[in-house]
Design brief:
By secondary structure, the chain is of the alpha+beta class. The chain contains 13 helices and 17 strands. It folds into four domains: 6-128, N Utilization Substance Protein A, Chain:P, domain 4, CATH 3.30.1480.10; 133-197, Nucleic acid-binding proteins (OB fold (Dihydrolipoamide Acetyltransferase, E2P)), CATH 2.40.50; 202-275, GMP Synthetase, Chain A, domain 3, CATH 3.30.300.20; 278-356 and 383-410 and 416-420, GMP Synthetase, Chain A, domain 3, CATH 3.30.300.20. Strand 10 (220-228) and strand 11 (232-239) form a beta hairpin.
Length: 425
C-alpha cells in the first residue's frame, strides 16, 4: 500500500513544532510493527518513504544463499537471479509486501504507535525549549486551581505554581494574566513539568533586570537579596562605574523604576541599599531609615551589636522584626539591636557591682552559705533580666572585640535615663 501523506506530515510538523523526519520515523515503525503481526515476527521487514511520491511501502528482505535453510530469511541463488540477474551470494533481495490486508487490529496498533511517537517527540521539543529558558520571567494565563496549586497555561504546555512558591495573600481567578519565574524544568512520565515561582528572591533580580537598563547591562550589580515575600524586600546594589549611582539608577526618575517592580509584586515594599565592603557601614545602610549610634563588631562569630537611640528602637527592629531580620539576611551577620539608654544603665550597674567588690566587702566565712540580701540584689537582678537583646539571631550576649565604622565612646557625665523595659518593642 502506498500512502500519499507527504502534505499531512508537513502540516503536522508545523503544528507540533516537530521535525518531519521524526514523524516519518514514527510512521515507519508503526508500519513495520503492523506488517510483522500480519506476516510473522521472524520476517525481516522494513518500511521506506518515497520522497518523490510522498508515500510509504513495506519491503521484505531475504539473503541470497546456495542452500536455503530458513524460508523466511533466505532465498536460493538461482531463484534470486530470476528476479535480479546480477544477484550474488550474501546479497539482500527486497520484495514489496501488500499492506491492504493488514486488518483493523494492525491498523489500530499502527495508529497508536504513531500517536505515541509524535507525543513523545512533542514533549521532548517542549522540554528542550523551556530548559533553556530556566531562570527567566515569562507570562502565562491562570487556567485553574488544583489543591491550592495554580495551573498556568503557557500556550503549548502547562506549568504549576505550588503554594510554597506563591506570594501570601495573592489570589488569582481563571483567565488572569500572571508573570512568574521559571524555577525548574524536569522530565516526568506525563511529560515535562515546569515549576513557576513568584516568591523566589531571584524574581526581584529578574524584574530589576527588565526595568533597569544599568542592571541588565551589568553596570549596576545586585549583590544580595533578602526577601519576605508579599511584605518587604531589601537588595544591596553596587556600581562598577564611579559616575553611576547604583541606588538612584534602581529607583529611577521620581521612583518610576522601582514602582514598576512594586506594582508587579502588588505593593511589596522594596528597600534599595548601597553595598559596602565594611560590614559595619553595610549594616548601617541596611538598617535605614533608623539612625545608628554605634556598631560593635565581633568577627569571631560574625555578630554585631547595634546601638540606636531609644526612640529609634522600634524603627530599627521593624514591624514583626522584619527590618532587622532582613538586614541580617542581607549582610550575612547576626545582628542584635539595643537602645542607647538601656546599654548605659547596664554599664553603670555593672560598674557599681565591681566598685563594691573592690571596696572590700566581706567574703562569706568558710562553711557559711553566701546569699545576696534580697533588698539589694532584687531590683538589680530584675533590671538585669529585662536587658535582653533584641536581634535577628539567637538571644545571647556577644563580647565585642572590635568597633566598626561610626563608633563613638559614650559622652562623660551622661545623665541617668529612666528605667525602661529593655526591648522597646
Amino acid at each position: 500500500m502506498i500512502l500519499d501523506i507527504g502534505q499531512i506530515i508537513n502540516q503536522l510538523g508545523k503544528e507540533k513544532g516537530i521535525d518531519r523526519s521524526v514523524i516519518i520515523g514514527a510512521i515507519k515503525d508503526a508500519l513495520e510493527s503492523a506488517a510483522k503481526k500480519k506476516y510473522g515476527m521472524n520476517k525481516r521487514l522494513e518500511a521506506i518513504f518515497d520522497e518523490e511520491t510522498g508515500g510509504f511501502e513495506v519491503l521484505e528482505f531475504k539473503t541470497v544463499v546456495e542452500e536455503v535453510k530458513d524460508q523466511e530469511l533466505e532465498i536460493a541463488l538461482a531463484e534470486a537471479r530470476e528476479l535480479d540477474p546480477e544477484a550474488r551470494l550474501d546479497d539482500s533481495i527486497g520484495f514489496r509486501m501488500s499492506t491492504r490486508d493488514l486488518g483493523r487490529i494492525a491498523a489500530q496498533t499502527a495508529r497508536q504507535i504513531i500517536l505515541q511517537k509524535v507525543k513523545d517527540a512533542e514533549r521532548e521539543v517542549i522540554y528542550n525549549e523551556f530548559i533553556t529558558r530556566k531562570g527567566e520571567i515569562l507570562n502565562g494565563i491562570v487556567q485553574r486551581y488544583e489543591r491550592d496549586t495554580i495551573i498556568v497555561d503557557l500556550g503549548r504546555t502547562e506549568a504549576v505554581m505550588p503554594p510554597s512558591e506563591q506570594i501570601p495573600r495573592e489570589r488569582y481567578r481563571q483567565g488572569d494574566r500572571i508573570r512568574a519565574y521559571i524555577k525548574d524544568v524536569t522530565k516526568t512520565t506525563r511529560g515535562p513539568e515546569i515549576l513557576l515561582s513568584r516568591s523566589d528572591p531571584r524574581v526581584i533580580l529578574k524584574l530589576f533586570e527588565q526595568e533597569v537598563p544599568e542592571v541588565y547591562e551589568g553596570v549596576v550589580s545586585i549583590l544580595s537579596v533578602a526577601r519576605e515575600p508579599g511584605f518587604r524586600t531589601k537588595i544591596a546594589v553596587k556600581s562598577k562605574e564611579r559616575d553611576v549611582d547604583p541606588v538612584g539608577a534602581c529607583v529611577g526618575m521620581k521612583g518610576s523604576r522601582v514602582q514598576s517592580v512594586v506594582q508587579e509584586l502588588r505593593g511589596e515594599r522594596i528597600d534599595i541599599i548601597a553595598w559596602d565592603e565594611d560590614p559595619a557601614k553595610f549594616v548601617c545602610n541596611a538598617l535605614q531609615p533608623a539612625e545608628i549610634i554605634r556598631v560593635l563588631v565581633n568577627e569571631s562569630d560574625k555578630s554585631m551589636e547595634v546601638i540606636v537611640p531609644e526612640e529609634q528602637l522600634l524603627l530599627a527592629i521593624g514591624k514583626r522584626g522584619q527590618n532587622v531580620k532582613l538586614a541580617s539576611k542581607l549582610v550575612g551577620w547576626q545582628i542584635e539591636v539595643r537602645a542607647e539608654g538601656h546599654v548605659e544603665d547596664a554599664l553603670k550597674r555593672a560598674e557599681g557591682l565591681f566598685a563594691r567588690k573592690k571596696t572590700g566587702e566581706e567574703a562569706p566565712k568558710e562553711g557559711a552559705v553566701a546569699e545576696a540580701p534580697a533588698a539589694e540584689a532584687g531590683p538589680e537582678a530584675a533590671d538585669a533580666k529585662q536587658e535582653a537583646p533584641v536581634g535577628a539571631g539567637p538571644e545571647q550576649e556577644s563580647a565585642p572585640v572590635e568597633e566598626g565604622a561610626g563608633d563613638a565612646p559614650p559622652a562623660e557625665g551622661t545623665p541617668e535615663e529612666k528605667p525602661g523595659d529593655g526591648s522597646g518593642a
